[in-house]
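Field reference: sequence -> structure
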Amino acid sequence: MAAVLFLVIIGLLIVAQLRGVSFNIRAVSALIIGVVFGILIKTTGFDYHSDTLTQLLKLFSNTYINLLKMLIIPLVFTAIVHAIVNLRHHEGSYLTKMVAKVIIILLLLTGISAVIGGFVGKWMHIGINREFIGTLTMPADKDHSIVSTILGMLPSNPVSAMVNNNVIAVVIFAAFLGVAALRLHKQEKTAAEPFIQIIHSTFFVAKKLASMIIALTPYGVFALMSTMTIQHGLSTLLQMLNFIEAMYIAMFIVIIMHTVLITLTGTNPITYYKHVWRALLVAFSTRSSFGTLPVTMDALANRLKVSEGVANFAPSIGATLGMNACAGVYPAMLVIMTLAIIGQPITWQIILLVGAINMIASLGVSGIPGTAFVAAGVTFATLGLPFNIIALVQGVDPILDMGRTATNINGVMTTAVIVDKTTKL
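Structure field:
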């Protein structure tokens, strides 16, 4: 019966689309209905272990996420090359300024977010009176230097980077290719034009494909939120309520910081959130910065009217670098909790140090669900803290990851707006 009810709701969403109900209403309704449906199944035990329902949820949610991921490489590659070659009629210094500003602002926002997370964690006394059952395992001594991190980003094999979804390597390769095409165009225009036209056409085909997949968002959101609620009920949430509260309070403060910054650039915050809420919704439900890339680019380029170069570059690089919540708030909060558990003092100097470490560590964070643990691992290794204490929050990580991803994406879009407003062609 639960599977039948699931299909009925999917059918109602299809009818709503055919009758012209706005995308916004359908997407928000899908989010709410998914949570209610999940709670109903979880609390009543109504076909809770139904294999048919499980398969349907997996089909709709995984299909939506996989389609979004399918877009990542072709869209990022063509978008970066297209944005660079489109600068052929402008001063070359714009590209250097834009890239430098995006990277610096992403890193600074991550460092500040980590400091916010540290102070909120200390203020809310997370980890106090908690005990860790088991042996504390110290992290292995690995090379986390800036040089090794940068070398790890360079694409020794561009095809392999695309196959492995190494987005930052693809971005770097696309940037080199775009600059090469730009220089060739200045030296020998006729030789460069065919390549530029192919990139131009491919980019717009990728954008059209993205719009087709984005239209499936209500169905994907409904399945994702249903799965999330069924798998992680209220009991799991209550076990780590203090940590969850602290995380969401810190992330809310970070978003307030974003809002203040975009306001200072002259952007109306109401207009801003009116245009970007779709990207935030997809980020919240998919828990994937990579998967949200097409929607983020669409929000920046087509709704906020951010310049093409910034709208394409900032989300692409921001899916791997400078993630405000995954590489900022979250590792800092875990450090505060760990220090409290092992009885170490928590000073403002330590919080600032964690902010600096996280800012550099964010250079290698990958934008797929669950990899905030990678960022936390780098921070813990640098500080010599017992890594396995992180396991305490694994049960509620999906609940945290929804807010983390939305905060990451908002940080990326805030960066794009700042860079666009302060860097003109």
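Note: The CA atoms of residues 365 and 396 lie 20 Å apart.
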